[in-house]
Write a structure and sequence with these properties.
It is a single chain. This protein is mainly α. It has helices at residues 15-23, 26-46. The chain is elongated and about 100 Å long. The N and C termini lie far apart (104 Å). The mean pLDDT is 87.
Length: 65
């Protein structure tokens, strides 16, 4: 008799197998991180700093002089 169960079958995910699969590309991960850090450094080095501030002072003086 055939199985006519319509529930989807979930596959088991092996995390260790997935890590080992991507571990072969470790050089590309290191190059990507170093390149990102270099670009961030150059961007922060040559972008002018922009500061904006505002303040209000209320002077409470009874003498009015």
């Amino acid at each position: 008799m055939e199985n006519f169960d319509n529930t989807p079958q979930e596959e088991e995910i092996n995390i260790l197998e997935t890590v080992y699969q991507y571990l072969g590309f470790w050089k590309w991960f290191v190059v990507g991180v170093l390149l990102s850090l270099a670009i961030a450094h150059v961007y922060l080095r040559y972008t002018p700093n922009v500061y904006q501030t505002s303040a209000k002072i209320k002077i409470l003086d009874d003498k009015k002089g």
